[in-house]
Design goal:
Helix content is 28%, strand content 11%. The chain has 80 residues and is an alpha+beta fold. The protein has a single domain, classed as Glutaredoxin (3-Layer(aba) Sandwich). The N and C termini lie far apart (53 Å).
Length: 80
């Protein structure tokens, strides 16, 4: 018997069935043009250690370029 392992399930990020977490993130951090929809896969949100949305990035932002923002969040946490 073959078993299928699934690590991720498809989630709704736009529309009537949007998951609550994405509604929260999109309303807190609209896109640069003021819209809230997530336009393409691999949109990214950074959230601070207290759960406050910090910054939103589009799908073209490589994850490696997030390092300075993550370091900024870590530094802020250490100062508290």
């Amino acid at each position: 018997m073959e078993s299928k392992v699934t690590f991720f399930e498809k989630e709704q990020v736009n529309g009537a069935n949007t998951r609550e977490v994405f509604s929260f993130l999109k309303s807190a951090l609209p896109a640069e043009d003021g819209t809230t929809d997530i336009r393409w896969n691999f949109g990214k949100f950074l959230v601070d250690h207290e759960g406050k949305p910090f910054k939103r990035f589009g799908s073209t932002m490589p994850p490696a370029k997030l390092e300075k923002y993550i370091e900024q969040l870590l530094k802020t946490k250490e100062e508290k």
